[in-house]
Every structure is written in structure tokens, then in C-alpha cells.
Amino acid sequence: MLSLTISAADNKTRKSTIHLKSGEYVTGVITQRNDQTVEILTDGDIKYVYTTDEIDYITHESRKKNYDTSKFRGFVDVGYSLGFGEPRNDYWLVETSFGYQFNTHWYLGAGIGIHNFSAKVDTYPLRNDVAVPEHNDPNWDFPFIPVYAEGRYNWRSETHGTPWASLKLGANTFNHSGFFASPSLGYHFGTSQYFSFNIGIGYALHTAHYKLWCTGDTPGAIPDNSGHSYLDKTGIFHNAFIKFGVEF
User: Fold this and answer.
1) Sign (positive/negative) of CA torsion 10, 15, 16, 22?
2) For residue 11, what is the enclosing H or E element?
3) What span, in angstroms and rounded, lies between the C-alpha atoms of 188 and 103?
4) Fold of 8-60
5) Residue 128 in 3-state DSSP?
6) How far apart are the two ends of the chain, measured CA to CA in Å?
7) How many other C-beta atoms are found inside a 10 Å radius of the C-beta of residue 125?
8) How many CB atoms within 10 Å of residue 172?
9) CA angle, residues 136, 175, 77, in degrees to nearest 5
10) Does residue 126 register a pLDDT over 60?
11) Number of Cβ within a 10 Å radius of residue 234
12) Interval 77-110: pLDDT, tens
């Protein structure tokens, strides 16, 4: 018969509870286990050995990841953002960050995000003359894609639950060019040995260049190869968001 033995070295940080058919239970570290018996060592260094016929079932405490020794980190967040001020646009967002946990408190990394911003008719940026058929720069059909560095501070060890503060600084890239900054606050929940999750709220600032369509006699108008003219503008966009993230 195949016999499986588990050593104390493999389970020294994980406690289990043996529930007996008699209704009693014992909590400790399982030091030996095979097809016939289970040996458990309690916190008081008392060793018990039970046969499998005596045991009803065994439960194990959840094992949380030790972030004090796991230095390389990754974050993936999803959320929704509400615009305020003028212009005002709402969007879904996905953000990532990968980096290094220097100690209990400080993390530094870098990442890329997708902020599904798209201009709407009768919102800014607009055409500024009714004679011009285009409402917006065609690039506004695409999202903001910020690339950034992130610094994060934890009030205490992430192996347990802890409040945190984060600051992302970078630039909008690809179809929109401009500055990006996003401070946020949240709470980390330690869950399993594989990943944890967090929730957060924050503020996002985007600046971006765009074309404001106009007539050719508008002061500062620039001819476009489409036959129309535009003004080269920079927009400032303010948003508040809530997000949910997983960590590993």
C-alpha cells in the first residue's frame, strides 16, 4: 500500500485542526501523516497520534503570502472614473504595476494603463464653428494609454491588512501625448499564499494635445491635409476613480 508522510519542515508555519468522531478537536502542526495515523504537535509541545478511524475530518488554516520576504511584486487594477470640471468625461480603466518591495513599507515599480476615454459630441474638445463638419480630432476615438512610475507606501506589513498610499507619475503615450499623475489611497487585504487584493480611491490628471477644428480665417488656424483647419490645443482632464486590484 502506498504511504504518504508529511514532515514538520513542510508545514512548520501552517496549523491544522483534527476533528475527532468523538466531537473533540486538537489544533497544532501536523508532523507525520500516512494511511493509518496522523501525528500532531500542539503549541504546548504536546504530541498526539490518532488513527484514521478516530478522525472525522481535518481543516487547515489559510496560508497567507509573506510579503516581508517576497520582494518582486505585481499589481493589476480595474476601476471606473468620473470626470469633473470642464471638460468632463467618464471612463473605465485598467492599470498594471510591476516592481520591487524594498522593505515592509516601500514599493517602487512601473506600469502601463488603459483609460478608456473617448470624446463625446457636445463635450470638450469640440469643433468651434458650425460650418465645420468634424466634431473632434479623430484620435479621440482611442483611449488614454499612460506609462508611469509608481511609488507606494504601506503603513504596516502587507502580510496582514494595511492601509496604503500610492503616487503614479508619467506620460500619456501613443495616440495622445501629455502629462499623467495619479495619487490614490486604499486598503490591502492579505488573503492566500498566491495573491491578495486591494481596493482604492484616487484622482487622475491627464493633459493631452488635440485638434480643435475651426474655419480657415480663425486666428492661429493650421491647415490640415483633409482640407480643413484646426487649432493646436492642450486639454486638462480631471477624474476621480474607484478601483479593485489583485496583487501577486
Assistant:
1) positive
2) helix 8-11
3) 16
4) SH3 type barrels. (2.30.30)
5) coil
6) 39
7) 21
8) 24
9) 110
10) no
11) 12
12) 999 999 887 767 789 999 999 999 998 889 999 9
User: What type of residue sits at position 104?
Assistant: T
CB 243 within 8 A of CB 77: yes
Domain 72-247, CATH number (from 3.40.640.10, 3.40.630.10, 3.40.50.1980, 2.40.160.20): 2.40.160.20
- Cell, residue 201: 480611491
100, 71 contact by CB (below 8 A): yes
The highest-confidence range among 18-22, 155-159, 166-170, 195-199, by mean pLDDT, is 166-170
Quick one: pLDDT at residue 68? Answer: 63
User: How far is it, in rounded angstroms, from Cα 176 to Cα 124?
Assistant: 15
pTM: 0.68
* Residue 44 identity: G
Q: How far is CA 27 from the centre of its chain?
A: 36
Whether the CA torsion 63, 153, 186, 246 is positive or negative: it is negative
